[in-house]
Design a protein that fits this description.
mainly alpha
Length: 312
């Protein structure tokens, strides 16, 4: 019996709330709508609160209620995971009500909304770049704020997301055996993010890419690519001494030295064959020239005169 009674009470409350909400949606009474909206907000019914605060935006414009409506609406959207809209509302609050003591909080929440709206690293990172800009703007505007410490951590987190995306894109080239593109892409990651924590792994992929380029290169580029790979192996050993990456670089360098020696032998053979061929061609040319001269002399020499005896 007690259970049934509680269910009935709950049903009555739900019906009453639903009725109040529906009435507020249809009402033109600013105070009534605001009352119901604030009740929804207090009860964490974010979606319903947002719907009513939207109705109030024009009704409270220019009144003392306007700041609270904008501020609460922004928070309701934030908790309802409408980060893009919430970020816009918080930013609008900070600009529209510059004297409000909540201005810094609104600016912080605006930046936080952009952070929350950042997409996963494997998706388009336009939102991440925008979030970093907004967070940096907060740091510039409120350098002494206690919230700045947290903001700095968020900026580092988002920056790493961009680094990791660039790193993964470069890895994709390596997986497809596009070693030249991988080499360039990994170098770009180092140029764009010189303090990246991914440097050891990036070095490893660059070393392996240059090794593959060298050993599988066409003849005209092989010598240069071997030299590039050898030079980088020494850089790895210098920058990351005693690391597994350095050990891999040393191992590949030994193979590259052997490759270089074999190529030097091949190059010498080719040059000798080229010299022999050119010498043979020269001899053939000389023979042809000499023959042409002889033929020319014969052609231009008049035949000897013949004396015919006269019979008497």
């Amino acid at each position: 019996m007690k259970k049934i009674f509680l269910i009935l009470i709950a049903a009555v409350l739900v019906t009453a709330c639903k009725t109040a909400h529906d009435e507020a949606l249809k009402s033109a009474d600013k105070d009534f709508i605001l009352k119901v909206a604030n009740e929804h907000f207090a009860n964490r019914k974010w979606h319903k609160a947002v719907a009513l605060y939207e109705r109030l935006s024009n009704l409270v414009a220019g009144t003392d209620d306007a700041p609270n409506v904008v501020f609460n609406s922004a928070y309701a959207n934030y908790y309802d995971k409408n980060y893009k809209l919430a970020g816009h509302q918080f930013k609008n609050f900070a600009v529209t009500f510059p004297q409000d003591p909540r201005k810094e909080e609104a600016a912080y929440m605006s930046a936080l909304c952009y952070y929350e709206g950042s997409m996963d690293y494997n998706l388009d990172q336009t939102s991440t770049e925008l979030a970093i800009t907004e967070l940096q703007n907060f740091l510039n505007d409120y350098p002494e704020s206690e919230r700045s410490k947290n903001i700095s951590e968020l900026v580092d987190e988002l920056s790493y997301k961009l680094e990791f995306k660039a790193y993964e894109n470069a890895k994709q080239y390596y997986r497809m055996a596009e070693y030249k593109a991988a080499d360039v892409a990994f170098e770009n990651v180092l140029d764009d993010y010189p303090s990246t924590k991914l440097r050891p792994s990036i070095y490893d992929y660059i070393m392996k890419s240059r090794y593959e380029l060298a050993v599988n290169s066409v003849y005209s580029l092989k010598e240069e690519r071997i030299e590039n790979a050898l030079a980088f192996s020494r850089q790895v050993e210098k920058d990351l001494p005693d690391s597994d990456v350095a050990k891999t670089a040393v191992s590949l360098r030994e193979k590259l030295v052997k490759e270089q020696q074999d190529f030097s032998k091949l190059k010498k053979q080719i040059e000798e064959q080229k010299e022999a061929y050119e010498a043979k061609q020269l001899r053939e040319a000389e023979k042809q020239t000499a023959q042409a001269l002889r033929d020319s002399v014969i052609a231009t020499t008049p035949p000897p005169s013949v004396t015919i005896p006269i019979q008497k």
